[in-house]
Amino acid sequence: MSKKEWFDDDSFWVDQYAEMFSDKRFADAVQQAEQLIKLVKPQEREVLDLGCGPGRFAIPLAQKGFQVTGVDRTAFLLDKGRIRAEAAHVEVDWVQEDMREFVRPAAFDLIISMLTSFGYFEDRRDDLRVLSNMLTNLKSGGTCVIDLKGKECVARTLQPTTAEVRNDGTIVVHRCHVADDWTRVCNELIVMREGQPRRTFKFDSTVYSGQELRDRLESAGFSEVQLYGSLSGDPYGLDAERLIAVARKI
Ligand SMILES: C[S@@+](CC[C@H](N)C(=O)[O-])C[C@H]1O[C@@H](n2cnc3c(N)ncnc32)[C@H](O)[C@@H]1O
Description:
By secondary structure, this protein is an alpha/beta fold. It is built from 7 helices and 11 strands. The longest helix is centred in the first third of the chain and has 18 residues, at 23-40. It is globular. The chain starts with 9 loop residues before the first helix and ends with a strand. S-adenosylmethionine binds at residues 7, 13, 51-53, 56-57, 72-74, 77, 98-99, 114-117, 120. S-adenosylmethionine (SAM) is lined by residues 7, 13, 51-53, 56-57, 72-74, 77, 98-99, 114-117, 120.
C-alpha cells in the first residue's frame, strides 16, 4: 500500500474540475485525438488511456472506433466520464486503479498519458514502475505517448505567483517554485469563493526535460523514442509548450 500523496485527495479533483476539464479542454481534445492518431498511426485498435480523468481522450477515441480502456484512481472523474460516454453513445472500459498497479500484459496497441498525468509520485522509482507497466501492457510493435509540460518550457514560463478571476468569480492565487535540484515543481493553489472558506491545495510533480524523459523511457525498455513539441508533430524546440514523447515496444 503506497503512502497517501496529494493526488489521493479527491477534493482536489472535485474542486478543480470546472477549470481543469472545461468545455474548451474537452473540445480541444477532439482535435488533439485526431492529431495523435495521425502522429502515431496505431496498428490495431486497443487503446489504454492512463490517468484518463473524465475521458477527454478516451471518448473521442472510442468515437473513432478504438476499443478504449480508461484507468484512473479518482472515482469522481470516472463517473463524469461514464456520463459523457453514455451521452456520446460509446463504450469505454472504465477502471478505477492506481497506474502503478494496473497490469494487463500485451493487451494494448497504444497507451496514452495526457495533460501531465505522469510524474506525480514523490518516489521517482514509481515513475519507472509506471513506465515498466506500460511496456508490459503494450503488444509488440505498440506505442506509448506521454504528454507533459517539459522542463525547458517550465524554465521559460514559470511565474512564482499569479492570480486570476475565473468565470464563476472564484479568485485563485497560484504559487509555484522548483525544488530538489530542479527535479520537482511544487504548486500551491489558494482558492477563494464568495461565501465559502478559503481553500488551499498543494500539488507537486517531477519535471522532465526532453532528454530526461527519453532516458527514462529507454531505461524502461522502450525503443525509437521521438520527442515533439505538439501533437501535430512540431519539433521539441525553444517555443514548445508541450513535451510529447512517442516510444515503441519492439
Ligand atoms: C491532469 S488530469 C489529466 C486527465 C486526462 N489525462 C486528460 O487529459 O484530461 C490527471 C489525472 O491523473 C489521475 N491520477 C492521478 N494519480 C493517479 C494514479 N496514481 N493512478 C491513476 N490515476 C491517477 C487523476 O485522477 C486525473 O484524472
